[in-house]
Amino acid sequence: MIFSENHLVPFNNHLVAITDDGFRFSYAELQGWNKELYEQVGHRCLVFNLCTNSIESLVGYTTFIGNGIVPLLLDAGLDKELLDELILRYQPEYLWIPESRSSEFSNYSCIYEFKGYQLLKTSFNCNFQLYNELALLFATSGSTGSPKLVRISYRNLEANAQSIAEYLNITSDERPITVLPMNYSFGLSIINSHLLKGATLLLTNRSLMEKEFWALIKNEKATSFSGVPYTFEMLHKLRFFRMDLPYLRTLTQAGGKLNLHLTQEFANYCQQSGKRFFVMYGQTEATARMSYLPSDWSVTKAGSMGIAIPGGEFHLIDENQNIIWEPNTVGELVYKGSNVSLGYAMERTDLLKGDENQGVLFTGDLATRDEDGCYYIVGRKKRFIKLFGNRVNLDETEQILKTLIHDCACVGVDDQMIIYITDEARMKETQDYIALKTGIHHKAFKVRCIDKIPKNTSGKTIYSNLETV
Amino acid sequence: MENLSKYDQVFISNLQVTQGMLSTLTYQSVPAWDSVGHMGLIAQLEEAFDIMIDTDDIIDFSSYQKGKEIIAKYGITL
Lengths: 469, 78
Fold this sequence. Notes:
The complex is a heterodimer of chains A (469) and B (78). Chain A has 469 residues and is α/β, with parallel strands linked by helices. Helices cover 26% and strands 28% of the residues of chain A. In chain A, helix 2 (27-41) packs across helix 3 (55-66) and helix 6 packs across helix 7. Chain B is 58% helix and 0% strand. Chain B has four helices and no strands. The termini of chain B are close together.
């Protein structure tokens, strides 16, 4: 099993992680800490893992997965109120949490400390059963604290990590740098696929806009870099094409569609400088990855999300659920593979549920397929957008806003949400509130005032009457 | 003097801060000055002063005060 002792022992003398403050840790050390932490918990149960890109967070995660403890992975900066709601709803027995936040939970006792993290025992002692294949839980939307979780199995984790390692040709020589948070399925997939092969993670919480981040890339010779569309816009702004990074061999992009112009620029640059550029597509509901565009095709097929990952397959269906066989026809993208999650959870008792998806995922994304079998995303069926890589459900942000302002409606496109309200005096307050609650930069939210939110006779908002740009 | 108020205004409008907060303002000391905010800040400074800030300076631009030194390198007297 992934991250069990049997898996990790062969890499004992390899480095598992290097941090931006210069510390180096081996796989042997990781296992020692895993053993120590597991002894504190000692049985299969639910733990909330508040994630950072740190050795502590990594130790927590590998301990839990390798020993049958089920973590819910959350952003360490998650708003306290939203976190409390999740705790009440899912009743974890423990929190694995940065020391800096543990004072917010003074009613829980700290039973173990490891560097900057603490293991807190909550007041819940329920011997709830967990479905025996359940490995971990992801939040569907990290920033809104949505109670809707994705249930991932051990088989899901292993299948997806294996497949990614195969098409990216990952070996123990790789040194990916963490750009994305580990509670985000894309970020975690990088960790999983590299630990599977005994590679070395360069762990940092620094952003691309800090010199310490670039010092780590250069000094520790990072070999790969992964980001969401916004990351690539930042790279472009930093004039990445002029940087001298000979060890950086691979760039991967997912988490939303990068605009065509930048996709072409990065594809051309990588082709000319002997680097590999992979555009990929995935969803948390499929553990992470579903497709990749082979880097040799990155120039000629720019704009495509490529083909299914090894072990997976795609097809398109029309409105009557019939398979579309003709090329260049829009339909809903459906994926089949052993990385398709078990299903969702809305409350504690759902953690007992078995495999509801049976390996088939209706993605909610609209796509076409060209004559060569490459897929292109053209739209979405569901009401969500991505803000700087964060999936944000527009109905959920409306719910959050309704605690402040009753009459509102959220629409928008990737990287720009538009919030319609009817009280002009509260526009700034609305923007501040949603930025605070989601932890996403206020620029992502534009507030507009209109006379009336358009509604149909049954009181439902008519979103199509609201401009989305 | 005019340049200094231009410089201050870019911070105030981009990072949702008040004049009084500027002197001690550092990267990530307010929620709005994250990597997204940083990119907007740099872009607007470049526009306001008609300069092109180098990569090393973009990632070294860690505070309001540090930024003054950096801007000065581009011939802008604050």
